[in-house]
Protein: Peptidase S8/S53 domain-containing protein
Organism: Priestia megaterium
Amino acid sequence: MIKKIISIICLFTIIIGLTVFPSVSSATAETDDIHTLLIKDTKNFEDIVTYVKGHLAEGPIQEVKEIGLISYEGKSINNINLPDVISSAIEEQGSLPKTKVETDNEDFQLDGILKEDFAKNNWYIQDVTHNFDSFNIETGDNVKIALIDSGLDVNHPYLKDNIDLQKARSFVEGDKNLNDEFGHGTSVAGVIKSIAPHIKIVPYKVIGKTDGESLWTIQAIIQAANDGTDVINLSLGTYKSKTLQDEKVTIKAYKKAIQYAKSKGITVVASSGNDHYNLDLLKQNEKKYHLPGGLPQLITVGSSMKDDTLAPYSNFGKKVDFIAPTGYLGKNYDKTGEIDIRDFIITTFPTNKENTALDKLAEIPNGYTLSFGTSLAAPQVSATAALIIAKYQDVHQKKPNEAQVSNYLKRGAIDLGPKGKDIYFGYGKINAYNSLLSIK
């Protein structure tokens, strides 16, 4: 067999599987231009806003009253003698991190199996739906998933009938269209529809061409909650460790936003990340947190291989609740450096973007891509949660609460590894068919 050596720089099939990470900066809170305040009691919110506008801000400010968050460009409150009524009202202050999808630049060796029927890369759908049997029970009618991501190809032929643009919105500064210039959101949406064919997807754009702001993600969570969506999917994240001060404000801001969504009865799902970190030891050893995936307020999802082993990139730990099958470059890739495309999954990709080099060699049609990663694991759980909500409403004539949705996910999960919940697979591999059968 003739082997082809190909250098693929910034290969999207790797990018799309990666969780979103922050850009790294050595600046301290005193030298940052953008500052964030969290207010203890929202009853005092307007008073604090007035003070910030008059004494600290040097331009427009961003307000998220639901969680008492104020973000502004201007003076830091460090080393400033604030009035007691102002200083006592501030719970935390610091700077929120940027979010950025980082790339892996590698040389990949393709092993000559590229001409196989790409439909075989739907193996994850067969796995999660029990050979499509779940479609005979529920398909997700009248349920909405908030896709907080890089936008969406709203004209994609596979997705267009599932997209709800009534509440859709871009939070990216200076970019109010929903076009998916990166491609990540479109791929996540394809996974959602593959599990829940009749679901409605509401896009909230928080990532531009290269990166985004944590503030935009937090704003989108609040907006999705106020818009009455049923599930929020967060296939992105950040590692936050610049300073203790910034760390506290970032963690609390995410926690408050997610708790606000939960108070509205919304199930929030996030990816665990792709660095093979033990999330339990991340703070202890690396002085880092992974956010929002890994927070106890939401459902955190890791990735498994085709053979039900933990994917070598997937973060793990006690904070991981479930895993979902997303594959990898090939089960022997780490040993031989050879790619086996049968271990990838296939999903949607913007039709106005050129296919990746690997997709071209594999003869993948325009509008689709081969990929893997925890970014594609979270939407499998989000879609299954949506199916549970739809089925429960059919049976009980009311919407289940977030705890009930989580319980049905657990009932349906296939236990892998040590019996019961473990640090690698959580409660097990998600299974939509089993979860739907458990609803009586």
